[in-house]
Amino acid sequence: MPAIQSPATEEIHPDVALVERAKNGDTAAFEQLVRQYERQIFRVAQHITQNREDAEDITQDAFLKAYEKLDQFQGNSKFSTWLVRIAVNESLMRLRKRKTSKTVSMDEDVHTDEGSIPRDFAEWRPNPEQQYNQAELAEILRKTIQGLPPGFRTVFTLRDVENLSTEETAEALGLSVPAVKSRLLRARLQLRERLSRYFGKKQEGQPA
Amino acid sequence: MNCTDLLSHLTDYFDKKLSSKLVEEIKTHTAGCQHCRVVLNTTEQTIQVYKGNEIYEVSDELRERLHSAIMSRCFAKK
Questions:
Q1: A131 contacts chain B (CB < 8 A)
Q2: A94 shares a domain with A133
Q3: Which of A12, A109, A116, B61 has a CA that sits 20 to 30 A from residue A21's CA?
Q4: Rounded CA separation A8/A6 (Å)
Q5: Which of A46, A118, A166 has the CB atom closest to B56's CB atom?
Q6: How far off is chain B from A197, nearest CA to CA, in Å?
């Protein structure tokens, strides 16, 4: 268990007051929380499910669940982390329901291969933003992240796209901090290798 | 430090959570190892390109639709 910090050394997050008001039936306070996090929850769900309609449903379901279980939120974590955890679980459940052969758990299909040396050693041409227009670049980034196993994709999304800390990511996914770090490393290296096909300088002897 | 050691420290390196001694060791290693230098540079660029570009745009129209649906589902229950 982490040590409890004294209130004097820990800044109280503004969400704490909003959650407290929402628990006491203040609709406007809950609505403010929805406004703050609806985009983020939608993006997380879309990243995991890769499906826009599913992401819309999951966003609604996650907030409804959060609202219904608000009394169970004890404030041991940030409200946003708690909400992301609900959305991740809903998203993984949605993937399971699709009954595809693709993996649907944070633990499956995640071979971390600690210590394996990455391939592809081409430096990138400077500034991918100048090589492709915004729509092309977004498409490349989307396609590339879609190719990752869900376990890697989810960790990378929370940590590097949504800017959660490693500890918050671990909490949201029910993983240990070392497990998050290990998956994050593999996700970053796999994305790097795949993006090198688009952004890497051509090396001598390579086909054009 | 060898290439495998460098990889094991890469996440903490990008999070700026490494001791200055280990950061120096990484700099020394990458100065003499082109492969690790490229991996470090391009991994850092990978993180930056994802941080700097929104890949799933949430339009105002979508946001409003979502918002209305969330609020009506939550408060229809009470």
A1: no
A2: no
A3: B61
A4: 5
A5: A46
A6: 12
Phi then psi for A200, rounded to 5 degrees? -75, 150
C-alpha A87/C-alpha A66 separation (Å) is: 10
The CATH number of the domain holding residue A48 is: 1.10.1740.10
Residues A140 and A92 in one domain: no
Residues A146 and A78 in one domain: no
Q: Is B19 on the interface with A (CB under 8 A)?
A: no
A185/B34 touch (CB, cutoff 8 Å), yes or no: no
Instruction: Give a yes or no: residue A1 inside a domain.
Output: no
Residue of A59, A65, A16, A23 lying closest to A41 (CA atoms): A59
**ipTM score assigned to the predicted complex:** 0.89
DSSP designation for A175: -
Q: What is the pLDDT of residues A13-51, one digit of tens each?
A: 888 889 999 999 899 999 999 999 999 999 999 999 989
Number of domains in chain A: 2
B-chain residues within 8 Å CB-CB of A27? 75
The domain tally of chain B equals: 1
